[in-house]
Amino acid sequence: MGARRVLVTGCSSGIGLAVAVRLANDERRRFQVVATMRDLGKRGPLEEAAGDSLNKTLEIKELDACCEDSIKECVNSLSNRRVDVLVSNAGVGMIGPLECQSIATMKELFDTNFFGLVRLVKEVLPDMKRQQSGHIVVMSSVMGIQGLLFNDVYSASKFAVEGFCESLAVQALKFNIKTTLVEPGPVVTEFEKKVYEDAEKMDLSEADEETARIFWEIYLPYSKKVFLSLGQTPEEVAEQTHKVITAKEPPLRHQTNQLYMPMTALKHADPTGRLPLDTFYKMIFKHEGMFNATLGLLRMLRKK
Ligand SMILES: NC(=O)c1ccc[n+]([C@@H]2O[C@H](COP(=O)([O-])OP(=O)(O)OC[C@H]3O[C@@H](n4cnc5c(N)ncnc54)[C@H](OP(=O)(O)O)[C@@H]3O)[C@@H](O)[C@H]2O)c1
Predict the structure, then answer these.
(1) Nearest Cα to Cα of residue 11 among 246, 247, 257, 234
(2) What is the pTM of this model?
């Protein structure tokens, strides 16, 4: 069997870049990677990371997930339009009190995180159905399983992604097309930097004093501690994405961070939703000591 063609979106930095490079360097050269980004002016870091694989097992193309024409042009430029594996990774973040976020900004986020995926799938699915093979891999998040304070809209976009894929997966399977939601916890990338920078510039005047205080004095420091204690590297997520793509029977869901799993497990442990709600509430508002001790313990486990 020849190399499988993998199209990855959002490869200018972070997880997308790492996934493209990992697949291009597959020990058994099983992949031909089309690494895409919306602004080719940002190709430098990918070219550098790709090294010898550049223009051999990895080529770089333009693709804006928010533009149907751009997606079509990219797929049309591939021989036979063949895409064996789609890695829909492009995404943006947003944190903060709802009162301070405009509907226009929320729509922009959904346009990338949710409709970006939908546009891509609409473009490649008919060909995959004709081929009777394919794998749709989507960079979701643990926030697609369990919502988190001040991540209301971002989390909603990932829930949308999860619902879309879960629904589509059954029909896709009939055409021998696999679907996988990769669900990272915190990953240290530009993403985290961008959301904190935006948060620091955020105009909190629309929020009441207590909400603004919770965001500044509790959420932001807690969130930074979580990234410091549990954050994975993009390369770790790429390694696990490689495993999922090369698996004989890829799972529908794959969480990349074992240390985060106790949090997501709470959701499945209690269908009424009370257990995760109470736990998060207590951890954030009542027991700072417990929160810090838990993170300390997880940090230790991680080192081991
Ligand atoms: N970092 C985390 O903690 C974390 C955790 C769970 C899931 N994720 C998910 O992982 C994915 C990758 O995030 P990351 O952490 O690697 O962040 P990142 O370093 O900021 O990378 C995001 C990528 O998406 C691209 N992008 C944004 N809008 C696009 C569009 N319209 N068309 C094409 N590309 C676009 C960005 O391109 P530009 O450079 O042009 O902006 C960038 O290449 C996202 O879907 C994110 O939701 C991240």
Answers:
(1) 234
(2) 0.95
From the list 275, 301, 300, 243, the residue with the least C-alpha distance to 23 is 243
Give the residue, by CA position, lying nearest to ligand 1 atom 36.
10
Q: Is 125 among the annotated ligand-binding positions? A: no
pLDDT digits (tens, 9 = 90+) for 108-166: 999 999 999 999 999 999 999 999 999 999 999 999 999 999 999 999 999 999 999 99
Whole-angstrom distance, CA of residue 304 vs CA of residue 301: 5
Q: Secondary structure of 52-92 in the HEC alphabet?
A: HHECCCEEEEECCCCCHHHHHHHHHCCHHHCCCEEEECCCC
Ligand-binding annotation for 38, yes or no, is yes
Report the candidate in 90, 94, 113, 107 with the shortest Cα–Cα distance to residue 42: 90
* Residue 14 CA, ligand 1 centroid: distance in Å: 7
DSSP for 15-28? HHHHHHHHHHT-TT
**Rg, the chain, Cα only:** 20
Q: Which residues on neighbouring strands pair with residue 189, listed in sequence order?
A: none
Strand order in the sheet with 253-255: 58-62, 31-37, 4-8, 85-88, 134-139, 177-183, 253-255
Query: How high is the pLDDT of residue 228?
Result: 87
Active site residue 154: yes
244 vs 253: CA distance, rounded Å: 10
Domains and CATH numbers, the chain: 4-208+231-257 (3.40.50.720)
In this structure, the number of other CB atoms found within 10 A of the CB of residue 304 comes to 4
From the CB of 190, is ligand 1 less than 6 Å away? yes
- For the chain, how many residues are written? 304
